[in-house]
Amino acid sequence: MTVARILADKGRDVLTTQPHRTVKEVAAQLASRGVGAVIVSDAAQAVLGIVSERDIVRAIGTGPSSVLEEPVSRYMTAKVTTVDESASIDRVMELMTEGRFRHLPVVENGRLVGIVSIGDVVKRHVNTIDSERRALRDYIGAA
Predict the structure, then answer these.
(1) Which pLDDT tens digit goes with each residue over 63-109?
(2) What is the predicted pLDDT for the residue at 13?
(3) Are strands 37-41 and 47-52 parallel, antiparallel or unpaired?
(4) By CB neighbour count within 10 A (0-12 exposed, 13-18 middle, 19+ buried), where does 35 fall?
(5) How many Å separate Cα 91 from the centre of its chain?
(6) Confidence band (pLDDT; 50, 70, 90) for 6?
(7) How far out from the chain centre does Cα 4 lie?
(8) Per residue in 20-47, pLDDT tens?
(9) Alpha-helical regions (H) of the chain
């Protein structure tokens, strides 16, 4: 199973924002869409950073009282780990575990083409295990 397959199943819609948007605006985007991260990108869909709910909570907890009115670029993760569509689920799980993050942008030729979350990966992994279990049960039952 590859990232391309996950994107084919779930779609390629990605929530993005610009670096000058305020933390408050980005928090409202996350809340209204019910997602855990937003990609900070430019007009050419290049990934400039990522902001998660965790980043916003940390900013509020440690920043000045005006943090909600500050640009999200101050609190985004600028060094973003990405994958391309050929990456395997095992590789995605490895990157997420090592980096301790839950969202992984998918980039092809320098452009954002999708995003994979830990929920997407776990869902596919569980489905694969369930399919293997059923196949083994059917094989044993037919023997």
Answers:
(1) 888 999 999 999 999 999 999 999 999 999 999 999 999 999 999 99
(2) 92
(3) antiparallel
(4) middle
(5) 14
(6) very high
(7) 14
(8) 999 999 999 999 999 999 999 998 889 9
(9) 3-10, 23-33, 53-62, 89-99, 118-142
Give 66's Cβ-side CA count (13 Å radius). 4
Please state, in angstroms and rounded to a whole number, the distance separating the CA atoms of residues 7 and 65. Answer: 39
Scan for tokens 């000058």, then name that residue: 20
Do 26 and 38 meet the contact criterion of CB atoms below 8 Å apart? yes
* pLDDT value of residue 10: 92
Query: How do 103-108 and 16-17 pair as beta strands?
Result: unpaired
7-12: long-range contacts (C-beta < 8 A, 24 or more apart)? Answer: 7/85, 7/106, 7/113, 7/114, 7/116, 9/124, 10/120, 11/114, 12/113, 12/114
Q: Answer yes or no: is pLDDT of 134 > 90.
A: no
Strand 16-17 and strand 37-41: pairing? Answer: parallel
Token pair listed for 18: 């610009």
Separation of alpha carbons 113 and 108, rounded Å: 7
Q: Rounded distance, CA 24 to CA 38, Å?
A: 13
